[in-house]
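Demo today. Your pick:
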Amino acid sequence: MPILQEVIDYLHSIAPNHYQEPYDNSGLLIGDVDSEVNGIVVSLDVTEAILDEAIGLGANVVVSHHPIIFSGLKRITGRNYVERIVAKAIKNDINLFAIHTNLDNVYNHGVNTYIAQRLGLKEVEILKPNLAMESDSKVGAGVIGNLANPTEEMAFLEDLKLKMNTSTIKYTDLRSKPIQKVAICGGSGRFLLDDAKAQNADIFISSDFKYHEFFDADNQIVIADIGHFESEQYTINLLFELLTEKFNNFVTHFTKVNTNPVNYL
């Protein structure tokens, strides 16, 4: 059986940990790098239900996109869900590893590139390269690419809803202009709106826009807010594919738990 360090080294060969944003907390959060890997559960978030799933499957590693520990813990008394999860993971010898903004920021096998492929975009590039991290423009925030053929706006939104498996899209006024250049940022992407407009994107797909921020479209672009979980849910597929292609001496499980905390009526 491989040890956890081998899994970490492989994932960091794809998305180096130093590519994460300064505010982030990716990497091994709980566990022992020398422990043998009995099985992995891949998820977007870590919840108590995810830990129960791992325990039931006999898996001792959870690889998630979002880190459960994001800010400092001063005590672990079970007073909130983070403390309960941390205590339960330690008690049951479950290793917790997160690969968050470093996986967002890479081009090859990155979260946003994966979304772009799902939407059939061509000529995909990083939307806002971070040249301080990498000099070849293959590291940075968001992506931008082109549809093979211009598509009527409402038809594109209907296709987006289907391909991203979302029940609701919040969008700004349409501009009576076909969609061809598409900008994407999985998760909270408001900070990239100006970059999308500067590159003349017809639409910016992301999530977590506040009410007044929708006005910032200013008839220069269509904003499509598809929901945070919905925009990143296929990160589970991405990680599952990477791990199953690399390792065949333990089972990688695609979680059956829907961790989306938001419900729609």
User: Anything to note?
Assistant: The chain has two domains: 4-100+233-254, 106-225. The chain has nine helices and eleven strands. The two ends are 46 Å apart (CA to CA). The CA atoms of residues 48 and 85 lie 6 Å apart.
